[in-house]
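Minutes, project huddle
Topic: does the predicted pose make sense with adenosine-5'-diphosphate bound?
PN asked that the exact inputs be recorded in the minutes so nobody has to dig through chat later. Recorded below.
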Amino acid sequence: MLNIVIFGPPGCGKSTQSARLTSKYNLVHLSTGDVIRKEIKSGSELGIELESIVGKGELVPYNMIIKILESALVQNKNSNGFIFDGFPRTIDQAIDLDKILAKDKQEISTAISLCLHDKKAIERLLNRAKLEGRKDDTENVIKNRLKVYEEETYPLISYYHSQGKYLEVKGDCSINDIFYNITNIIEEKMALAQIDNNILNIL
Ligand code: ADP
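Predicted holo structure (tokens), as shared on screen:
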């Protein structure tokens, strides 16, 4: 299985790249943000609760997120792998994801971060607000999401770095260039993993 984590500040383009990676490698795209927005749209009781949290740019409590994750993993057990987009968002979530995958003898293959300066992120999201009208794309909420990213999600860099899985790609280029750079590093990484495997088999 090819299990890719993709993360970066709001506006870095992770959803766009995830959609492309999903079709190139025939993976399942698990976007916690999309699942949450769907629930909000349904108008359910849970949706109303989620709306008030997401609308402030805060993180959704762990017990709600973990249910989304586990049900997606169970439903897609026989897939080629996953793109985890929006999960993990904290070190605790990353540790749990490793544990959940390990139960099925699986692991994260690589974690890619898309880097982008705050100024550019705010500019992109305000533009998106005009087109899509996402409720959490107002200037104050964007600033809070960036702060939450910095405090809660940015530490994932050292987490995956220490596992030798961390890869970084610049998010301030065209969609095609970013995709080209991501697929290059994924394929390099897969080729190296294959070489390691072959050596292990010989030994
Ligand atoms: P962004 O474009 O800001 O990265 P997403 O579309 O991935 O946002 O997620 C939107 C919102 O959904 C987040 O701001 C957060 O409130 C909530 N959310 C998504 N994934 C998680 C998660 N793994 N843990 C907690 N909250 C989450």
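Observations noted during the meeting:
- The domain at 2-27+79-116+154-202 is CATH 3.40.50.300 (Rossmann fold).
- The CA atoms of residues 55 and 135 lie 6 Å apart.
No decisions taken; revisit at the next huddle.
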